[in-house]
# Entry
Amino acid sequence: MSTEPATAEVAKPKFFLPDAALVHHGHIDEDHRELIAILNGLLAQADQRDMLDGALFRDTLQRLVARFERHFREEEAAMAALDYPDLAAHRQVHSSVMARVVGTQRDTANAAEVGAAEVHNLFNLALDDLLRADLGFKTYLAAPQPEDRIAASAARR
Ligand SMILES: [Fe+2]
Ligand SMILES: [Fe+2]
# Structure
């Protein structure tokens, strides 16, 4: 876990993933924490009116896009290495999340200020991966693997 400045906002992050959403495989959970930390950092910049500076929002969004791209690429590689049967559908979720994040980039390209609601929308998009899609992979990881089943059936003979 990265060390964060001890500001009130960071001490009480707005967004978090419950323990039940941890996948416990490779560095997927660490990636998810980093993505959420970027969004919490963005939200911490909102002023009293819940508005963010447009240029700051765009810089952070650029970093978020790069982090999502790397996360999705590495997560798909981890899934492929384990013959995850739902990988094709999972790739589509990743493509859809990226398309919508890039849509937010396009929609806010010239804004002097951006509402904090955009950050909430980005968090909701992130949950399509972190929560809604990746828990399917967690379930697959927890299920008996074919070789285990074969070994168990051979042991019974
Ligand atoms: Fe995913
Ligand atoms: Fe993920």
